[in-house]
Amino acid sequence: MTIDLRYVEDYLCDLALNKVGPIIKTKAGTQSEYDLKTGSRQVDIVTAIDKQVEKLIWDSLKDEFPNFKFVGEEGYIKDVTKITNEPTFIVDPIDGTTNFVHDFPFSCTSMGLTINKVPVVGVIFNPHLNLLISSSKGNGVRVNGEEHDFKSKIQSMGPLIINKSIVALQPGSAREGNNFKTKMKTYENLLSADGGFVHGFRNLGSSAMSLAYIALGYLDSYWDGGCYSWDVCAGWCILNETGGRIVGANPNEWDIPVDNRTYFAVRGTPDSTKKDQEKYIEDFWNNVGGVLKYD
Amino acid sequence: MALTQQELKSIENNIVNLLKEQVGPIIKEQSGQYLTQSYDDKANQVDLVTKSDKNIEFIIKGKLKELYPTFSFIGEEEYVPGETKITNEPTFVVDPIDGTTNFIHGFPYSCCSIGLAENGNPVMGAIFNPHLNQLFHASKGNGAFVNDEPIDVAKRPLSLQKSVIGLEGGADRVDSPGSNFDIKMSTYKNLLSDKGGFIHGFRSLGSAAMNICYTALGIFDGYWEGGCWAWDVCAGWCILKECGGRLIGGNKNDWDIGIDRRVYFAIRGGCTSDEQKKFAEDFWNQTTGDLKY
């Protein structure tokens, strides 16, 4: 069975623009009665809207692609839900839930498709900024339907070097224990004049938007731990299409699966040998102050 | 003789037009354009940005001199530390490009910030981000607007644990015990930790003016900063006040500050002044020392 990836991309764009986006846009900031997840994710806010949007997406995809598998944040069951080689939609109905609750304009919907566990379609829509970014394997990237000229963008950005770069960082919801300590230590190393001395960091509170912003050439990299496959699947495909790369957040994790839980995403460069990208990744890893580990 | 409410509104309208028609297009066009040209030489990069900065400041100053010849003018580019003072006279306080790093990298949060102070207090402010096409503006007693929509901050409780706060790494990165960088990093850790503030989250956009605007909108509950200047906060402060928010010092018990305090804490409106006070005290309790500039 050959799957027309561009058709899937267009279908997801339509779904994002016309069905999911309007709900996210009108409901953001209105959810004062939200639940806080318990346990180590106490700061992770789940809303009824999240569940409602996931159902809407799932129902729509089941009709159109009845044989595809579906993995969504809300339906996910730890140790039970597995990503197989089958075509699988991996969906975060609302990425950036804290943003959504607080009306910070970086909540979005993120919908990806994997085949053989590799992201091959990615669609991210932020209705607050009216930004739709989409791609499918081998078909380039589109921004609001227009072809994204990432090659000239990358040319204009010059070499990728640690102390010239802007890095997306977000502490996430776990605020105790070893992972939290490792993150804080790494941030300090990256910023310090004696360490990576990066040009700056930005925190948008959304993995999908951070990946989208790298693909657009606004950011150079994004380092995180604790996120899930649905946070990165769509962005991964988009980033791949622009020559970017995703590796693990811990040193020497060069090849990782979609559900690795720790990620380091880096933008593309004009260097076709990819040596500068590898050097950047190694230089960055030297600033990681510990090991991120998630069950 | 203080400027009247009508006079302030007329100034606000003129500044809005200046930002929209003359300043915004330049920022939008030049953002992200200097990366390759300047890469080989750091000094060169600073020069290029300064050139854009100076060019925009020159345009603004010229227009303001023409419209308000008697008003004083303080701009980032002309500022002389220790010499330039904000007097009681009506004074425009201008940052031609706020978020310089964003401007260099093309991250869409650079903006122009034009404030007016009278008797040392901000009485008019306008901030334009041409990338997102967001123009925030206000004047004393006349309310605050984003583009042409009045800003109406949703009423809801304010507490530290449920807050999202704007925090930045800043440019000062000297990592020694008791340094400003050290205090910022340990304070961030306290704010996030489940044994400390355990806040919902922090966000970093790399622009003081935009962070204050987002606090004014109520998107951020607070914004804490050390190291910025009068021109980074003057316009935003007026907008924040008109939205029911408050700007106080970033260090403990610094309730009453001047525009050039260098250490700031912005608090959103949409809640009671008692909640704002409690929020400030709870926040200060997480700081690990006084920031000094």
TrEMBL record, chain A:
One Gene Ontology term of the molecular function aspect: metal ion binding
GO biological process: inositol metabolic process; inositol phosphate catabolic process; phosphatidylinositol phosphate biosynthetic process; signal transduction
SUPFAM superfamilies: Carbohydrate phosphatase
Pathway: Polyol metabolism; myo-inositol biosynthesis; myo-inositol from D-glucose 6-phosphate: step 2/2
Residues noted as binding Mg(2+) in the record, renumbered to the chain: 73, 92, 94-95, 231
CC cofactor: Mg(2+)
Domain of life: Eukaryota
Acyltransferase as UniProt keyword: no
Reaction(s) catalysed by this chain's protein: a myo-inositol phosphate + H2O = myo-inositol + phosphate
A Pfam family assignment: Inositol_P
Keywords, ordered alphabetically: Hydrolase, Lithium, Magnesium, Metal-binding
EC number: 3.1.3.25
InterPro entries named in the record: IMPase, Inositol_monoP_metal-BS, Inositol_monophosphatase-like, Inositol_monophosphatase_CS
Family (UniProt): Belongs to the inositol monophosphatase superfamily.
PANTHER family per record: INOSITOL MONOPHOSPHATASE, INOSITOL-1-MONOPHOSPHATASE-RELATED
Name of protein: Inositol-1-monophosphatase
Automatic annotation (TrEMBL), chain B:
Entry's EC annotation: 3.1.3.25
Classification via InterPro entries: IMPase (IPR033942), Inositol_monoP_metal-BS (IPR020583), Inositol_monophosphatase-like (IPR000760), Inositol_monophosphatase_CS (IPR020550)
A single MF term (Gene Ontology): metal ion binding
Reaction equations catalysed: a myo-inositol phosphate + H2O = myo-inositol + phosphate
Positions of Mg(2+) binding: 76, 95, 97-98, 232
UniProtKB keywords: Hydrolase, Lithium, Magnesium, Metal-binding
Family from the record: Belongs to the inositol monophosphatase superfamily.
Record's protein name: Inositol-1-monophosphatase
